[in-house]
Amino acid sequence: QVQLVESGGGLVQPGGSLRLSCVASGDTLEYYTVAWFRQAPGKEREGVSCLKPDDRPHYRDSVKGRFTISRDNAKNTGYLQMNSLKPEDTAVYYCKLFQAPHEYWGQGTQVTVSS
Q1: Helices (H), ranges, the chain
Q2: Cα three-residue angle 65-104-82, rounded to 5 degrees
Q3: Three-state DSSP class for 6?
Q4: pLDDT at position 1 over 90
């Protein structure tokens, strides 16, 4: 059973940066697609970015140019570097690993962007 542990969330001022980490245990990360989702209060969960094992990253339009997804297979860890953060980025961020038919979710980490 794969388990995911996220970290790196917190309170940051507008324009600031955070790097989220997602450490996987129980299986090897390199064969999975790594994805990040977020859910703001009162809103549905939405996809932010994803990275397949041998493909270019994909981003939702609102974070293009500001967020960067990456993976370190040797460390079994996925990352989401978030720069130029905006108040509308405030949400609980979740990482997800999937390789059909399996998918695994982390517990979420809170990101709050506020002055």
Answers
A1: none
A2: 20
A3: strand
A4: no
